[in-house]
């Protein structure tokens, strides 16, 4: 923050300071957007303090696990600014409670693990960091064993539907699946089901 302040101070003119900050903020935002736009699902495993940019980051992830020692804070107000990397845009949709998000954002209150689970910020709470990491890696292996066409299509559909109406989401998937249903993965999955195979099919990388 001090480095940023010195960089801005060195620009002199207000217009040039503003243009510099515009470019810088947009660049930082893209680094968080890259997580959400990653074709593969991203699992966040959180322990200890998660605040500021940490909350921005986990809000861009697909799945969030935390350990019992974790806590969360939207703390930007306490440093004299409004959060600008995605928390205020993504968290209301994750939690589904505008009033509660505003309470957290205005007060910088700590959110403990059980409250985080109750409001939907995290999906699961584990007694220790090790237990959490084991579960996260296990889930990652399960997801990795699935059809990449199906997994990536599901992520695209969920992200699109979050920001659009149900009807728009259905129409989007009509166009998506008119191509993706022709994938060899559909045939491989069907054959495995028919043959009652104990091992998942081996899918090509996408």
TrEMBL record:
Gene3D superfamilies membership: 2-enoyl-CoA Hydratase, Chain A, domain 1, Lyase 2-enoyl-coa Hydratase, Chain A, domain 2
Keyword match Isomerase: yes
A Pfam family of this chain: ECH_1
Keywords: Fatty acid metabolism, Isomerase, Lipid metabolism
GO cellular component: mitochondrion
The keyword Lipid metabolism appears for this protein: yes
Family annotation (CDD domains): crotonase-like (cd06558)
SUPFAM superfamilies, alphabetized: ClpP/crotonase
Pathway: Lipid metabolism; fatty acid beta-oxidation
Molecular function via GO: delta(3,5)-delta(2,4)-dienoyl-CoA isomerase activity
One GO biological process term: fatty acid beta-oxidation
Family annotation (InterPro entries): ClpP/crotonase-like_dom_sf (IPR029045), Ech1-like (IPR045002), Enoyl-CoA_hydra/iso (IPR001753), Enoyl-CoA_hydra_C (IPR014748)
Family: Belongs to the enoyl-CoA hydratase/isomerase family.
Protein name: Delta(3,5)-Delta(2,4)-dienoyl-CoA isomerase, mitochondrial
Organism: Stegodyphus mimosarum (African social velvet spider)
Phylogenetic placement of the source organism: Eukaryota, Metazoa, Ecdysozoa, Arthropoda, Chelicerata
